[in-house]
Write the structure tokens for this entry.
Amino acid sequence: MTDIDNIVILTGAGISAESGLATFRGPDGLWEGHRVEDVCTPEALARDPVLVHRFYDERRATLGAVAPNAAHQALAALDRAWGGDLLIVTQNVDDLHERAGATRLIHMHGELKSALCAACGKAVAWSDPLPPASVCDGCARPALRPDIVFFGEMPYHMDRIEAALQQADLFVSVGTSGAVYPAAGFVQSARHYGARTLELNLEPSAGSVYFDESRLGPASLLVPALVQDLLG
Ligand code: APR
């Protein structure tokens, strides 16, 4: 690929699937046995905090049993070597991109390894189970919750993402179904601003028609091949 300086890469659950983490929209429509509305909305947290906290405690504990795969590693290698602007925007709440070594990274839907104070907004690194009503060390109120962007809440860092999309020469989407906005709309923004758009996914995503090119297959093969191509 030539004439590319600035790259934005959006990743979704599909990039972590080969590491052993479940995607969201499996054939049964459930995420780890739960309906998304029962564990991933502000209403669910208010109605049943024990269930919601336990659900994310289990997801956090699972991280210790999985490792970055070839796709995470290839993006980390690109991050180290790429001389132009690069922004990896992940919808994933796992920590596999950073464990592979990526640094130019944004978690737009939050992080399992972070707790957020619902009272004062302070976020703090968190590796252990998080019981409901854990106390915030910033404001001393018992208001810590999982630092996950629930449906109906605003994703993080939208200004920075929008600015990067405006400058992008290449937009790549990896392992996402394109079902959840605003991330699902990034391809149209990137196109609007003049970027070439490329999708890497096991199957065509919901927004497949908006991409200049779709490459279908497992991320562990497609991402290293793309990175090799980019780094020449
Ligand atoms: N390689 C590439 N793509 C894969 C692989 C793989 N090994 N395995 C699965 N996929 C693809 C699937 O075909 C699917 O299109 O990854 C996509 C995963 O889609 P979703 O499960 O919908 O995950 P995602 O798009 O990340 O979900 C977006 O939804 O519930 C919310 O906040 C949650 O961030 C999440 C958001």
